[in-house]
Design goal:
Chain B: One of its GO terms (molecular function) is electron transfer activity. The complex is a heterodimer. By secondary structure, chain A is α/β, with parallel strands linked by helices. Chain A has 6 helices and 15 strands. Chain B is built from 8 helices and 18 strands. The chains are: A alpha/beta, B alpha/beta. At the A-B interface, helix 3, helix 4, strand 9, strand 10 and strand 11 of A face helix 2, helix 3, strand 7, strand 9 and strand 10 of B. Strand 14 of chain A pairs antiparallel with strand 10 of chain B.
């Protein structure tokens, strides 16, 4: 089985968010970048398939050279090869088109991406990719079992879970649950050393639709002071009379 | 050139989000000087959509659509859009809608913007405000394609009644595609509010000390008609299911009232709940970061405050019912 894991290079979850250039760009100053958490669950699940069932695992991302440390981390975790599309990922549709080209040329059976990135939260790349390639698609996937070409997947739905039966080739929008948080792999020294020798290809982008453009950013208005209350009676009264939520 | 809105239903009845997206679509249609047409699948109460400004309902009854199938839904909406000559599609932020949206986007070569929190800023060019960076910021996004897909955040726009006489037309459709992804089992809590569409969410963290103490959280949720949720450590510890984990890597919550009990308020958790309108924190640590993000707070022991709150809310409900 040949697996491609699509990874996004995102600000660490604890990052404070600021904007620059007249609020038109995300301010990367002092921000630590990591593998998007939803993608990391997918990468670890891919490594499980590699170890238990036999698979080749490649990782791909769309980004400039600044994303390479994140790709090297994926290689240190155990991915066999990495591919970087040399373009700034400004729009989900554009990213999906670039990844589709890699999948088409690479003959992958299974493509795993995160259900959404934690920066732009588009949540569209795996689905558009699947549709462009006419591959089966499972979103918000929390369990994935593969037997030959047959796939059993569980996806999270509002208020519960749904089990789906499908087949390879498949694109998965994954999240926590694909593996447990405690099973996430941390690169060890041997992995880091080996990653330096692994292939990281850079390919140029293909022409594609840029469907959307973020023209400006801003932040929520500062929060007012909390109202601390002494009694439960007072709280109930405030929720009813002031906040009008009960 | 109408606006199409995909209205979700379950067991023949509209979900709460159907009326919100209908209201939103009516507003978009008003801004564009056109009308809003709903696509309703296997629902038996279509006339209700007229209350929210929908002038036409395309009534689809199709066994292939039971249960929800994302590819089939994308095909139906796409054909409805073609039939109506529409250029805008409005959908919700439900799990099903977010499953369908990218398939629709690819099919129509349409720009999709999710997590929208307000009516369009302009329709020429088409500019819209959405949350980004897991609710830590907003993006003002321009959609550049001819066809636009708008995903409205839960509870962001609310329901707006603009009564209209809605005509209901049967929209029969033969689904061409072979759907290779099939549902084999649905395990869903029935009759309880879900985090996605609950007006009130009661959430608890490690301060509860163990899963055996969740009874009082469920009791509080029952009194309020609320959904239950939890912090990330609680789901990591297996005290509660992953589906209840609220935060940056869990579910976002955009309820009217969010009550956080025994949750200190890590930045990732606060990002997930920042769209909630009123936040209450109950914690015995006055230094807990959640006190800086909430509207109301009680510094106290959850095991004393919560049972008292349940009793007071029961009294309140008895007096106000």
């Amino acid at each position: 089985m040949k697996i491609l894991v699509c990874i996004s290079n995102v600000p660490d979850t604890t990052s404070k968010i600021n904007f620059t250039d007249g609020d038109t760009k995300f301010d990367t100053n002092g921000v630590q970048f990591v593998i998007n958490p939803n993608d990391e669950f997918g990468l670890t699940r891919a490594m499980w398939f590699k170890e238990k069932q036999g698979a080749t695992v490649h990782v791909a991302t769309v980004g400039d050279a600044s994303v390479e440390p994140t790709m090297r981390k994926a290689l240190a975790i155990g991915a066999d090869e990495a591919i970087r599309v040399n373009a700034v990922p400004t729009d989900g549709f554009f990213v999906a088109q670039q990844l589709a080209e890699i999948v088409k040329n690479g003959g992958y059976d299974l493509v795993i991406g995160g259900r959404e990135s934690i920066d732009y939260n588009g949540g569209m790349v795996p689905g558009i990719l699947a549709s462009l390639l006419d591959m089966n698609f499972v979103n918000t996937c929390v369990k994935l079992e593969i037997d030959g070409d047959n796939v059993t997947a569980v996806r999270e739905i509002d208020g519960g879970k749904e089990t789906l039966s499908t087949s390879l080739p498949l694109v998965v929008g994954g999240q926590k649950g694909l593996v447990e948080e405690s099973d996430l792999k941390i690169p060890n020294m041997r992995g880091i050393m080996m990653a330096r020798q692994k292939k990281l290809s850079v390919v140029e982008p293909v022409e594609g639709i840029k469907a959307t453009e973020d023209v400006k950013f801003d932040k929520p208005a500062p929060k007012g002071e909390i109202k601390l209350v002494e009694t439960v009676d007072e709280l109930v009264s405030l929720l009813h009379n002031e906040a009008k939520v009960i | 050139m109408s606006v199409i809105v995909y209205t979700e239903s379950e067991n023949g009845k509209f979900k709460k989000n159907a009326f919100e997206v209908a209201s939103y679509a009516s507003e978009v249609a008003r801004q564009m000087g056109t009308t809003a047409t709903a696509v309703s699948i296997n629902c038996m109460e279509n006339a209700l959509l007229g209350t929210y400004g929908i002038s036409k309902v395309l009534n689809v009854q199709n066994e292939k659509m039971k249960p929800f199938n994302a590819k089939a839904a994308a095909e139906v909406v796409s054909k409805a859009l073609e039939a109506e000559g529409a250029s805008v599609v409005v959908i919700s932020s439900s799990s099903d809608a977010k499953y369908m949206a990218p398939l629709l986007s690819a099919r129509l070569k349409a720009g999709y913007v999710p997590n929208i929190v307000a009516a369009p800023e302009s329709t020429t060019p088409f500019k819209i405000k959405r949350t980004a960076f897991s609710n830590k910021g907003f993006a003002h996004t321009e959609i550049k394609t001819d066809i636009k897909i708008l995903g409205v955040s839960n509870n962001a726009f609310g329901t707006v009644e603009t009564p209209t006489d809605a005509s209901i037309e049967d929209f029969s459709i033969s689904l061409d595609a072979e759907f290779k992804t099939k549902s084999t089992d649905i395990d869903k809590v029935v009759g309880k509010a879900t985090i996605a569409d609950a007006d009130i969410v009661v959430s608890a963290g490690r301060g509860l000390k163990g899963p055996e103490n969740w009874g009082m959280i469920e009791d509080l949720a029952d009194v309020l008609g609320a959904a239950t949720a939890c912090s990330k450590p609680v789901s990591d510890l297996g005290w509660r299911p992953h589906g209840e984990h609220v935060g940056q890597t869990g579910k976002p919550v955009a309820s009217n009232l969010y009550i956080a009990i025994g949750i200190s308020g890590a930045i990732q958790h606060l990002a997930g709940v920042s769209s909630s309108k009123t936040k209450v924190v109950i914690n015995n640590d006055p230094e807990a970061p959640f006190f800086k993000a909430a509207d109301y707070g009680i510094v106290g022991d959850a095991f004393e405050v919560v049972p008292e709150l349940i009793e007071k809310l029961k009294e309140f409900k008895a007096q106000n019912s």
